[in-house]
Amino acid sequence: MKGFGVIKKGTVGWLEKPDPICGPSDAIARPIALAPCTSDVHSAYEMEGPHLINRILGHESIGELIEVGSEVRDFQIGDRVVIPCTTPSWSYPSIQDGMHQHEAGLVSGINFSSYEDGTLCDRIKIRSADMNLAMLPANLNPETAVMITDMMTTGFHGAELAEVKFGDSVCVMGIGPVGLMAVAGSALSGAGQLLAVGTRPDCVTLAKEYGATDIISYKEGSIYDQVMDATDGNGVDAVIVAGGDLETFYTAFGICKNGGHVANINVFTEITSFNIPIEHSGGGWMGHKTFRGGLCPGGRRRMERLISIVQAGRVDPGRMITHRFHGMDSIPEAFQLMVEKPRDLIKPVVILD
Ligand code: NAD
Ligand code: ZN
């Protein structure tokens, strides 16, 4: 098979590999729609390790099954499927602790483009097909559906980690595609005032469409001051970090109310610790603030639930697609866009007609 990936740290290109072997509970798909993720850029240029040499990248995909293992119950060759980015084997005891993302160790639930080959290829192997695949509804556009596999589940997980409740005030820091989906997820979870921190015009427009009530721009001055002004000095019940740096965390804990939650869904590759300010926490870090970071949930039921939200017309993640490409040969160009992040980019897709 042929795939696009990291040859060694800092060098990407096409890789030729033996065709994947379909185990009894696996399935193999040809791609219908693919999207590169910011995390693929982290994997190619910032992270390293033996698992990231000659590794096909990609974990956002919609496919058509071309092979199905002998023990697969619910899927057949020819089915069009939504393939979550997080596809555990579902066979470790930690599943019973609710930790499918880390079933066999930290982030082991996401094998695509990390511990095994990813989906930017012509033959995608999915483990535990019955537990991981969801049927693509006939009336759901594959390019919209591919936004569910990672961006929507991750952004919505931000709202879950921050425990957004009816009437909560929420601030989403960073409104790339992950942050935009955190805005949409917070709105659906019942946020009242919903602040989004970002500047790119297309992202700002979409953040408002997804439910942001206030836009905060670093260009207008300190984010901390602006959020405190916009909330009458109260701060917010929930902060979701979906972009930024160390300073972002300093601000996030500062604007979080006592008793509130800070959730991180950004992947940090270049810093080794966070700066948590005590000065904003009622003294001695006694402010009952919580901090959680997490990898997006995957698996079949998660996909089916998110698909039902899209089908009910409550959110359209396809609105984030700004660049469309056709054919395998365009994968490098789509990937390069994610590296360069031009101002008009939110999310590219590659459609395999
Ligand atoms: P992106 O680069 O498109 O968006 C990040 C946004 O943050 C940008 O708009 C950027 O301008 C903004 N930003 C940068 N510095 C900021 C600051 N100081 N304050 C506020 N905003 C700031 O990236 P994306 O595709 O939306 O992905 C965001 C992150 O989510 C990436 O690190 C990605 O690897 C990660 N991710 C995590 C998971 C998960 O499971 N937790 C899944 C997918 C992606
Ligand atoms: Zn991703």
General description of the model:
The protein is an alpha/beta fold and 353 residues long. The chain folds into two domains: 2-146 and 316-351, Quinone Oxidoreductase, Chain A, domain 1; 155-293, NAD(P)-binding Rossmann-like Domain (Rossmann fold). Helix content is 26%, strand content 24%. It contains ten helices and 16 strands. It has helices spanning 38-45, 129-132, 142-146, 148-161, 177-188, 201-209, 223-230, 246-255, 300-311, 331-340, and strands spanning 2-8, 11-16, 27-35, 55-56, 60-68, 80-83, 124-126, 134-135, 170-173, 194-197, 214-216, 236-241, 256-264, 290-293, 321-326, 347-351. Strands 3, 5, 6, 7, 8, 15 and 16 form a seven-stranded mixed beta sheet that branches. Helix 6 (201-209) links the parallel strand 10 and strand 11. Helix 4 packs across helix 5 (177-188), helix 4 crosses helix 9 and helix 7 runs parallel beside helix 8 (246-255). The longest helix is centred in the middle third of the chain and has 14 residues, at 148-161. It is globular, with a radius of gyration of 20 Å. The two termini are 18 Å apart. The model has no long low-confidence stretch (mean pLDDT 96). The structure holds nicotinamide-adenine-dinucleotide (NAD) and zinc ion (ZN).
